[in-house]
Amino acid sequence: MNDNFKSGFITLIGRPNVGKSTLMNAIIGEKIAITSNKPQTTRNRIQCVYTDDSAQMVFVDTPGVTRARNKLGEYMVNVARHALEDVDLVLYLVEASDYIGKAEQHIMESLKKLKTPVILVMNKIDTVSADEVIVAIDKFSKAGEFAEIVPISARNKVNIDVLKEQIIKYLPYGPMLYDEDTLTDQSQRSIVSEIIREKSLHALSEEVPHGIAVTIDTMKKREKKNIWDIDASIVCEKASHKGIIIGKGGAMLKKIGSNARYEIERLLDSRVNLKLWVKVRKDWRDNDRMLKDFGYKE
Question: Where are the beta strands (DSSP E) in 70-203?
């Protein structure tokens, strides 16, 4: 390892749906974090690793910062808050807008207390004009203190290389923290469950997704065959939601399963036999034991 090599931990923070997971996937070059335009898409602290010849960046994607309405919400707020501690750099993601709402003001107040450098990443510049981007940068630069401001489009991968250069600038010199071929600290089971949850978020109506979790009941590879057998449960809070998830004649569940299977097969580089079940667990988002069972542990 050369003496000029840098490595460090970078936290991504921002309100829900601002594009944190999309940005992380764009930087890593692989799909690690699930994406959706619905709140609570990212619930856990997900670590992804990007390594090149000059640096290793360990990204911590966090849940969007929002007001907690139940124990799951409290867990998510705590995850986001703890992710700001003991890191080398914070990327604060915002949309290219001249409107700074209460959520942004709340986050900026938290960031002002940090000694860690903060890069303001202005995402979705592809959705507004160049003049509007300039106005938005001016507005945010007056509202907070940032080491750098980098306008990007995570979806279209615009200025991602510029952002990487700015990140490296603020990382300390040091050896690799993970093997160079590591992309994430998530297990295969965890990624598979998140893929199923993502496809559920995409397919279902507004009132259902907040209240679903996905558990992998069994996941085994057949002996001497490149086939995985996976049984998974989509857990919801109400019997009426179960009906929506299954759909008329099982059509919705079939759609979720088909979309998830395609992506899981790409992940595992194997054929997949996926069976989905739907279970009702009333008010699981306010039940400590069930939250722990579904993987939401401090």
Answer: 89-95, 118-123, 148-151
